[in-house]
Amino acid sequence: QHAIQRCSQWRCYASASSAGLSQDKITERVMTVIKLFEKISAEKLTIESHFMKELGLDSLDHVELLMAIEDEFGFEIPDQDAEKLNKPSDIIKYLCEKMEVDYK
């Protein structure tokens, strides 16, 4: 529960609705949440950074980060999907697909 409370402080926008969202807006929100995650160095972060191999997160950190993404966008990411989301670009593509936003 502590992680959920901490994650809720990261919400960048009041609305989690997909109405009016674009890939650019989703990218901006995802990258902001990731930059605010205390265990990630913003200087090392790119859209293609691997969370574990390049940014040094362990599996628990990865779960906490995805919880923050879930909180930001207002829906749960199933475990079988979460384990495939290893880079910001993976998360952005996944969210675009789930929210029916065009992904380029």
UniProtKB/TrEMBL annotation:
InterPro entries: ACP, ACP-like_sf, PP-bd_ACP. GO terms for molecular function: acyl binding; acyl carrier activity. The keyword Phosphoprotein applies. It holds the Pfam family PP-binding. One of its GO terms (cellular component) is mitochondrion. The keyword Transmembrane helix does not apply. Residues 24-99 form the Carrier domain. Pathway: Lipid metabolism; fatty acid biosynthesis. Carrier of the growing fatty acid chain in fatty acid biosynthesis. Belongs to the acyl carrier protein (ACP) family. This is Acyl carrier protein. It comes from Macrostomum lignano.
